[in-house]
């Protein structure tokens, strides 16, 4: 086994082979040049790419993008960057942006860790949000969960002082792990108080995952931690 194989990073996702719908494919082709970002372009100049300054919000794993589009439409003064590895979701996001006339999102279709490391400057973000990441609910798969100490340290480094990490999950065991990891991280303070979960902020739309969880009697846990 090579050294590269032994030290290969455990990924928090599995690339699905789902096909894009004709509408998603068309939206991708028509809008990628306008709203897409390439990891290979290196460091992102937010103000140049958006054509203006503004608060910077990074969302990791936006799925089909409905809540991200809703948040961007409700906060036109903010500049949102979304990262999603699944191309159909990116196509759906671009389709929704075009349909709804939302212009304040730019999107990567790439691995989030690589984007953070190679494209996002330290102390450059106002908010990082990760809503309902894959819980990898089987215990033997917990090592695949995205929220791990090393990843949280990377997120913290990318936040401006006073910037916020906002996580949400409908899996109680994952919420407990998130709380443990964020509470132990250096340079972060729990906005709700030590060991406390936050109420859902008004600016986080009710997602289909949350609605499903409510129907099934599941709780939802929000965590908001601020960089010191």
From TrEMBL:
One Gene Ontology term of the molecular function aspect: tRNA (guanine(46)-N7)-methyltransferase activity
Residues that bind S-adenosyl-L-methionine: 59, 84, 111, 134
Positions of substrate binding: 138, 170, 207-210
Keyword S-adenosyl-L-methionine listed: yes
CDD domains linked: AdoMet_MTases
InterPro entries (alphabetical): SAM-dependent_MTases_sf, tRNA_(Gua-N-7)_MeTrfase_Trmb, tRNA_methyltr_TrmB_bact
Metabolic or biological pathway: tRNA modification; N(7)-methylguanine-tRNA biosynthesis
PROSITE patterns from the UniProt entry: SAM_MT_TRMB (PS51625)
Range of residues in the leader sequence: none
Highest taxon of source: Bacteria
Substrates-to-products reaction catalysed: guanosine(46) in tRNA + S-adenosyl-L-methionine = N(7)-methylguanosine(46) in tRNA + S-adenosyl-L-homocysteine
HAMAP family assigned: tRNA_methyltr_TrmB
Entry-linked PANTHER family: 3-DEOXY-D-MANNO-OCTULOSONIC-ACID TRANSFERASE/TRNA GUANINE-N 7 - -METHYLTRANSFERASE, PENTACOTRIPEPTIDE-REPEAT REGION OF PRORP DOMAIN-CONTAINING PROTEIN
Family, similarity comment: Belongs to the class I-like SAM-binding methyltransferase superfamily. TrmB family.
Role according to the record: Catalyzes the formation of N(7)-methylguanine at position 46 (m7G46) in tRNA.
This protein's name: tRNA (guanine-N(7)-)-methyltransferase
Annotated source species: Seongchinamella unica
């Amino acid at each position: 086994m090579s050294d590269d194989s032994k030290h290969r990073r455990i990924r928090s996702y599995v690339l699905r082979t789902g096909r894009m719908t004709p509408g998603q494919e068309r939206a991708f082709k028509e809008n990628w040049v306008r709203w897409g970002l390439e990891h290979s372009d290196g460091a992102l100049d937010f103000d140049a790419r958006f054509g203006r300054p503004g608060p910077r919000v990074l969302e990791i794993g936006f799925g089909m993008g409905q809540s991200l589009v809703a948040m961007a439409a409700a906060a036109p003064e903010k500049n949102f960057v979304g990262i999603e590895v699944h191309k159909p979701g990116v196509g759906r996001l671009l389709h929704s942006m075009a349909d709804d006339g939302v212009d304040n999102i730019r999107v990567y279709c790439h691995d989030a860790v690589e984007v953070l490391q190679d494209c996002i400057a330290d102390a450059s973000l106002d908010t990082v949000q990760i809503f309902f990441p894959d819980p990898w609910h089987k215990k033997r798969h917990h090592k695949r969960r995205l929220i791990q100490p090393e990843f949280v340290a990377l997120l913290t480094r990318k936040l401006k002082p006073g910037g916020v990490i906002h996580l949400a999950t409908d899996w109680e065991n994952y919420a407990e792990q998130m709380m443990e990891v964020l509470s132990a991280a250096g340079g972060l303070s729990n906005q709700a108080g030590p060991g406390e979960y936050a109420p859902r902020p008004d600016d986080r739309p009710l997602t289909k995952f949350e609605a499903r969880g409510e129907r099934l009697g599941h709780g939802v846990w929000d965590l908001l931690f601020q960089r010191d």
